[in-house]
Amino acid sequence: MIGGDVAPMGPQAVTKIHELFDWAKKSCKGLLLFIDEAYAFLCKHNNTYMSEAQRTALNALLFRTGDQSKDIVLVLPTNQIGDLDLVIVDQIDESLEFPLPGEKGRFKLLKLYLEKYIFQAGSRKSKWFKNLFKNEYQKIEIKGLGDEVIREVATKIEGFSAGK
């Protein structure tokens, strides 16, 4: 789920949160609830921009996560931990930091991306797809994009982050 999806639900958000936790309790496998952009939903209680419905939804989540449970694992990825409500932060058992990658890591990520989404684009399509576009199907060919260029790009994008 995405934290920003809670506000548009209005008063129904509380009901949906309780339904989700009730389902997790009944499920033999439990639930891993991943709330992306958690700060949009789990911001501090005293936030003046928080509607009454959001505040009530936050309280519902706090109520349902107040005790340890074998039924649910809550994952809250954020690069703005300071924006989360302090009660939520206190309830977090484990915290993992994933810092931005160094130059070597950026190089590997760029290579992986280019290999998967550019160099091999279209090569893993099904026979049905290839037959549908018989004459129009072409492989992308890129010249001059070697490791040197990729390494230079990896150097230049230091500090880049999707969250900023």
Automatic annotation (TrEMBL):
GO terms for biological process: mitochondrion organization. One of its GO terms (cellular component) is mitochondrion. It comes from the Eukaryota. InterPro entries: ATPase_AAA_core (IPR003959), P-loop_NTPase (IPR027417). This is ATPase AAA-type core domain-containing protein. Residues 14-100 form the ATPase AAA-type core domain. GO terms for molecular function: ATP binding; ATP hydrolysis activity; zinc ion binding. The keyword Glycosyltransferase does not apply. PANTHER family: ATPASE FAMILY AAA DOMAIN-CONTAINING PROTEIN 3, PUTATIVE ATP-ASE. Keywords: Coiled coil.
